[in-house]
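Sharing a chain and its predicted structure for anyone who wants a worked example. Both blocks are below, sequence first, C-alpha cells second.
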Amino acid sequence: MSNIVNDQIIEQIMEEVDQLSMYQVVNEFLGRPEDYSAVAPAGDSWDEFFAHSKWNDERWRIELSVKRFEELCR
C-alpha cells in the first residue's frame, strides 16, 4: 500500500514536470547541461530525435518524475 505522503510528493513532482517543455524534460532526464538545450541528444534535430525515440512525451515526463522522486529518497 502506498504512503499518502509519498503520493503527495509524487503528485507535486509530476505537476512541476508538466510545466517543463519537452526539451527541458529530456535534457534533465539525460543529465545534459542547459548549454545543450538547443542541440538534440541524437540525430540532426529535436524532431528527428523524437521521431526515433521509443518513448512518447508522456513516458518522458513519467520517467523524469520517477527520477526526481528517487533522487529525493537518497
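Comments welcome. The chain is about 65% helix and 0% strand.
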